[in-house]
Write a structure and sequence with these properties.
This protein has 14 helices and 13 strands. The chain is an alpha+beta fold. Strand 3 and strand 4 form a beta hairpin. The longest helix has 41 residues.
Length: 402
């Protein structure tokens, strides 16, 4: 406690207005700014991740069952029994395959997704409709529901005046070189609705059609699908239900939750976040190493005090710890003030949206940068400052001698 009291006195003494203390406060200020930047930048990354996760969750099911290898599988009695499992609110088989969409003179490859009649109960597709209605079949007539980007690029409308044509290659038979068109199955459909997930992975690629139509065009029977999408009942533990499904299904199947369905995307976001953290940590490291200069100056200035401490019986270890504590106090002061300012700025941004994305014309999903403070990030930042501060004081404290 002796060393800490002296260090505290050196840093916060009312009479300490000399160059050494000014340099110390500048060092603390540099740490403060770097810490505040870390808090704000990581919170913005968290905000974007949370925003995108919310967008994906509208279209992705709670759980999705697919093959580990291969495209399609048969709905066996064991798989069909999942319908009646506790915690399963909706069992919706789907069939996906690449196809070609043509509207007048425009053509585009699409992901043809055949969905069952209860698909609207499995995902929130009804809430995503921005034009027309979600209707994939009425009185035996099939319809298509297109993504917003797909509709815009190809001029699709829901006025039921101009049908679109879907082409898929035939799975069986020989290719007729003289008539390549005969190698494709085609189906004319009217677009009943347009949905928007605000993600190009869906909006510019997906075309929803009835499951039976997709099976017919792809020459599959009614029990052949590419995935089973499940809606989990309210109050059900998703992780536990997933574990139960993994136990009952063969190893050739994989069960994915919402996060795992977009696992690659989230991993990229995490990597970007922590690379940014490392870059800003290097800036923080430069600010922290200013402490070396301020401590070296302090040791030179306090030579007489050091001699007095030794004469009073203080050990070399105690005297060294005075300057170690001094460096730590500078680091902690900068970290606490920087984190407080960063948290305050994040709360202001969250409440008032003072920093805008620049999309005043409505071209962005949101107007202001999203933020999401996470305790784990704050702990990492604080520990990083303490670690850098500890390393920076080791070198100058070695020169404290009798």
């Amino acid at each position: 406690m002796f060393s800490l009291r002296i260090a505290f006195r050196y840093l916060f003494s009312k009479k300490s207005h000399n160059a050494v203390n000014i340099v110390s406060y500048i060092s603390a200020g540099g740490i403060c700014v770097a810490t505040m930047a870390l808090v704000c930048v990581l919170s913005v990354y968290n905000g974007f991740e949370k925003l995108v996760q919310g967008l994906f969750s509208e279209f992705d099911p709670d759980l999705k069952i697919t093959l580990t290898e291969g495209k399609v599988f048969q709905i066996s009695p064991a798989i069909d029994s999942i319908r009646t499992m506790d915690g399963v609110a909706c069992f919706s088989p789907v069939l996906e395959e690449n196809a070609l969409l043509r509207n007048d003179d425009k053509q585009q490859p699409v992901v043809l997704k055949g969905v069952s009649a209860n698909y609207e109960d499995a995902v929130n597709i009804g809430h995503l409709i921005i034009s027309g209605n979600y209707v994939i079949e009425r009185n035996g007539t099939p319809f298509a529901v297109a993504g917003a980007g797909l509709a815009m690029i190809n001029g699709l409308s829901t006025n039921f005046l101009n049908p679109i044509t879907i082409y898929v290659p035939k799975r069986t038979g020989k290719v007729n070189i003289a008539n390549p068109k005969s190698s494709f199955r085609q189906q004319m459909l009217y677009v009943s609705g347009v949905f928007s997930v605000k993600q190009p992975e869906y909006d510019e690629k997906y075309l929803l059609v009835p499951l039976c139509l997709a099976q017919q065009m792809l020459e599959y029977d009614e029990r052949t699908v590419s995935a089973i999408e499940l809606k989990v009942s309210a109050g059900t533990d998703v992780k536990q239900l997933k574990a139960n499904l993994c136990k009952m299904l063969p190893e050739t199947f994989v069960v994915q939750d919402k996060y795992e369905q977009q696992g690659e995307f989230y991993r990229i976001m995490k990597v970007e976040k922590w690379i940014t953290y490392l870059i800003l940590s290097f800036i923080l490291l430069i600010a922290v190493f200013n402490i070396i200069g301020s401590l070296s100056m302090l040791i030179i200035e306090k030579k007489e005090d050091v001699s007095i401490f030794f004469n009073m019986g203080a050990s070399q270890r105690q005297v060294r710890w005075i300057f170690i504590w001094e460096g730590w106090l500078i680091s902690v002061l900068g970290a606490i003030v920087g984190m407080a300012l960063g948290i305050l700025l994040c709360f202001v941004q969250q409440r008032f949206g003072i920093i805008h994305l620049g999309g005043a014309d409505g071209s962005y999903i949101i107007n202001a940068y999203p933020v999401d403070l996470q305790l784990f990030d704050l702990c990492c930042i604080f520990l990083t400052v303490l670690l850098f501060g500890f390393v920076s004081v080791l070198y100058p404290s070695r020169f404290v001698n009798r």
